[in-house]
Structures are given as structure tokens and as C-alpha cells.
Amino acid sequence: MGHSISYYLNKSGMSAVVVDESSGSGQATKAAAGMLGVHTENHIPGKYHEFCLRSRDLYEELSKELFDLTAIDIGLSPFGMREVATDERHVDALKSKYAAFPHLDWMEGDQLRNEITCLSDQVLGALSMKRDGHVEPYKVCEAFKKAALCYGGSLVEYESVLGIEKVGDYFEIKLKHESIQVKRVVVASGAASGRWFTETGLTNPMVPTKGECFAIKPRKAFFKEALFFNNFYIVPKPDGRYIIGATSSPFNVSTDTTAGGISSLMNLAFHVVPDFKQASLENYWSGVRPGSADGVPIIGEHPDYSGLYFATGHYRNGILLAPSTGQMIKDLMTGQQVDKSIKDMLSPKRFEPKGGAIYEYSS
Ligand SMILES: Cc1cc2nc3c(=O)[nH]c(=O)nc-3n(C[C@H](O)[C@H](O)[C@H](O)COP(=O)(O)OP(=O)(O)OC[C@H]3O[C@@H](n4cnc5c(N)ncnc54)[C@H](O)[C@@H]3O)c2cc1C
């Protein structure tokens, strides 16, 4: 998220520096499958759907611009997604979603199996979301990072932010051996963002949620569309890998990948694509999603500290929402108009204890 924000800020003529205690992709970002799941993540139209849609649409232009600036191809897939039902309840839910989003296409099970012949007869129907593709998260992160530098940004890597202090009109960012003075700060530290809420008088809204994935590489390509099921997904990548994810374990920050987690995903995947059993296992990994207590990201200025912003809590949509988040922070800082209902929906103000914050979690 930090690199996307830096990209939009530096492009607009501001001077942004990213401080990152790890190098390259962040912890959740490098674990992500990269789906741009606008319609797997929304059941009805509304402001959140609008925010997701805008971000997905930004990727088309961005992929060209980032390539021109950095020569990195972010792997934007033109093949779309299918949300697939394997039980009648999910069929009903998908039909309701179809009624809410009539521009999507409904497919009966037979129709989908004609198109993707490796699918088992467990498949009962699907919603086709032709414009909701996916990207390579690691490459998106690298491309934003390099492009921000092209626009004059700077980067401090392998350094932890140890403290943030307001000193007059400035913020002092404390690192191990030095401090950096800045006019504005954006906290975009993923699942580790909680302390910056509590240290500034807000309730900790973070729900760190561990997720595990694995990848296989079959000898032949089976399908190109990302398939999203009730409790797992399969995302084909341009290099021939199929990413299968993801488990979900709230308030778990361990980065071990467990045999139990991966075997449960394997069972689910083999049930719908039996041929996957013959594929070679490439690798497996885990990451910690920055969930938020009310399931909505936290993007905006601190209610009491002018110049202190948050951009976190994106849970399982941070890759999808990286462009609209970067753009929104830039718009807020440069005084450009931001839709009031989106601003209110995402505002950190909802975690003000005196405002009667409903959620109280410890870190
Ligand atoms: C298994 C899995 C699958 C996912 N799949 C998808 C998907 O298909 N589509 C999608 O849209 N999203 C997906 N997500 C969610 C997505 O990965 C996250 O929402 C997103 O990456 C969050 O980005 P972030 O920058 O907020 O956090 P991170 O990527 O975790 O980055 C946080 C950064 O903050 C740095 N940091 C933390 N504390 C400090 C400090 N004190 N000082 C300096 N630096 C610090 C860290 O080094 C890190 O680089 C998935 C996540 C997981 C785990």
C-alpha cells in the first residue's frame, strides 16, 4: 500500500518517502493471489462496490503506465473470474447476486463444464465476471515502488519506524539511528498498524488474519479464468502456475505454513479439479491479512491529529484496492474532492472511543 500511495503522491508533485522494515513486497502483499474480485467481494451495489470498481478500472491504464516507467509487466489478466457454486445454497446466493448485478453472466453447470472441461460434476453453476481479472501482487508492488522513485520519491528500506511524534507543525519519524521530519504521515503498515491507532487515542481496529496458499504447476494449461468457490479459489498465472488459497485464521500472526492448512485446501481443490492431483507441487506459503473490525478498510485523516493519515485494514482486498487507496490519500492531501459518503465510510473517526466505538480488540 505504501508504494501505491507514494506513487500517486510523487506523481502529483509532492515529495514522499516510504520507510519499510522489509524490502520489496510487504508481508501480506507477497502472499496474495492478486485477484481483483470486485464482485466476489460485493453482494449488492453500494459505495464499497463503487470504490472497488474504480480501483479495478484504474489497473488498465496503470498497467501500461507502470510498464512504460519501469519495464515491469504487472500481469493483468484479461480472462476474468467465475464465482462457482457447488451446493444449492451457493447457487441461490449467486442468483441473488446476478439480480443485483445484471451486467454479469449466469452460467449453468453444464455450460461451465463445456468451457472448462476439467471441472467435476460437483459444479452446479457460476457467475461470470469477465472484467474482474487478477494481477501479480509482487510485480505490482515493485512497479509502484520503482515508478514512485521515477517521479522523485525516496525509500528507506530495512528500517523500522520506532515512533511517530508531533513536534510543532511537523511529525518526527523515529528510526534506529536517526529521525526524519515530515509534514504528513501515512500509517500503511498492514496487520502491524494497530499500535499507531492506540498510541494516538483510537481503539485498535486491526484483526490480523493468517492465510495459507499453495501453488501447483501442471504439465498443461487447464483454464485461464480465476475460479472463486465458497471457501477457496484457484488463480491461474501466466507462467503456468495455479495458486490455490486460502485458509483464514483471525488473530493469528504466525507465518508458519501448516500441513493441515494445505491439505484442507488440496482436498477442496481436488474435489472440483481431480486432474490437479497429478500436477507437480511448486511451493506453499502464508501471510497475515490486515483485517479491520468492521470489515472495511481505514483510509483517511486522524480525527484529532491533522496530517496523520491511515491507509490500512484492507483485509483480503488490498491488491484490488491499492490504486484507489493511493489515489484517495493523494486527493485528501491535495484538497481535491473526495465523495463524502466514501470518505465517511472509510474514515478512522469510526474508531474514536469517545464516539462510542463499537469494536474493542487488543493487539
Ligand atoms: C493468503 C493471502 C491471499 C490474498 N489474496 C488477495 C487477493 O487475491 N486479492 C487482494 O486484493 N488481496 C489479497 N490479499 C490481501 C492483500 O494481500 C492485503 O490486503 C494487502 O497486501 C495489504 O497490503 P499492506 O501494504 O497494507 O500490508 P503488507 O503487504 O503486510 O505491508 C505492510 C508493510 O509495512 C511494513 N511495516 C510494518 N510495520 C513497520 C514499521 N514499524 N516500520 C517500517 N515498516 C513497517 C512491513 O515491512 C510491510 O512491508 C491476500 C492476503 C493473503 C495473506
UniProtKB/TrEMBL annotation:
Coiled coil: none annotated. InterPro entries: FAD-dep_OxRdtase, FAD/NAD-bd_sf. It comes from the Bacteria. Residues 1-332 form the FAD dependent oxidoreductase domain. The keyword Oxidoreductase applies. Gene3D superfamilies: D-Amino Acid Oxidase, subunit A, domain 2, FAD/NAD(P)-binding domain. The keyword Oxidoreductase applies. Keywords: Oxidoreductase. Transmembrane segments: none annotated. This is FAD-dependent oxidoreductase.
